Automatic annotation (TrEMBL):
It comes from the Eukaryota. One of its GO terms (cellular component) is extracellular region. The keyword Magnesium does not apply. Disulfide bonds join C35-C246, C83-C93, C98-C104, C153-C236, C158-C219, C166-C182, C186-C195, C196-C206. Keywords: Disulfide bond, Secreted, Signal. PANTHER family: OS03G0233200 PROTEIN. The keyword Chaperone does not apply. It is found in: Secreted. Residues 1-26 form the signal peptide. This is Pathogenesis-related protein 5-like. Belongs to the thaumatin family.
Length: 254
């Protein structure tokens, strides 16, 4: 039976409009692994939003997956490395580990490179906000590219190997001695001037440090410390996003 668009009593028509509206406003994240080793991406959703990818999954070298987020979604993505999970999904990772095993029920344990998103809704003018953050440290190269959107839609990322540049006092090493992650100065020293807390809890009193400046020099489009907003927060409207781990490829095995 044909739908009558002028009918005020056509629930099927209104359902169709609802579904089409949601499809139009959905955002697709394409997550790619260009590393030479398997990673286990983790996902975390904020404010009770839909959990994407069941919280976490395995991604082999060269593989990709697509995840769809509704309007207004906010959350983060990161890579876990050196993981061992049993058939039930129980296990641990060398970097980026989370509660819940394979399927994360919380954020990744620092140090970890993060991609953070707040997807647009009518409440914020349908503008997306996104960044790649090193505030919690670094474990894997990451890049975020917007496609099909309007606005500035900048590339965000850290494509340098910070593990190779990491000062000894920030290094996290595997059992075999390889540097597998680089801590933030806050995590390493727990001092107010590095954590932007206490008397250093404002943009005026928390300045870049030698460590955050090292991160910023290596990765100019990534957040290097808590108040690095001006050069690190990206905006776009109506875009889909590609999140690529090891964008330039990597032969370093974690």
């Amino acid at each position: 039976m044909a739908l009558n668009p002028n009918s005020k009593t056509s629930p099927l028509f209104h359902l169709l409009l609802f579904l089409l509206g949601n499809m139009a406003s959905a955002t697709v994240f394409t997550i790619r692994n260009q590393c030479s080793y398997t990673i286990w991406p983790g996902t975390l959703s904020g404010n009770g939003a839909a959990i994407l990818g069941s919280g976490g999954f395995s991604l082999a070298p060269g593989a990709s997956v697509q995840l769809t987020a509704p309007s207004g979604w906010s959350g983060r993505f990161w890579a876990r490395t050196g993981c061992n999970f049993d058939g039930a999904g129980n296990g641990q990772c060398a970097t980026g580990d989370c509660a819940g095993g394979l399927r994360c029920t919380g954020g990744g344990v620092p140090p970890v490179t993060l991609a953070e998103f707040t997807i647009g809704s009518s409440g914020n003018g349908n503008k997306d906000f996104y960044d790649v953050s090193l505030v919690d440290g670094y474990n894997v190269e990451m890049g975020v590219r917007a496609t099909g959107g309007t606005g500035d839609c900048q590339y965000a990322g850290c494509v340098a190997d910070l593990n190779g540049l990491c000062p000894a006092e920030l290094q996290v090493r595997s059992g075999g001695g390889a540097v597998v992650a680089c801590k933030s100065a806050c995590a390493a020293f727990n001092r107010a001037e590095f954590c932007c807390t206490g008397e250093h809890s404002s943009p005026q009193t928390c300045s870049p440090t030698q460590y955050s400046e090292m991160f910023k020099k290596a990765c100019p489009s990534a957040y290097s410390y808590a108040y690095d907003d001006a050069s690190s927060t990206c905006t776009c409207s109506g875009a889909d996003y590609s999140i690529t781990f090891c964008p330039a490829g990597s032969s370093t095995r974690h």
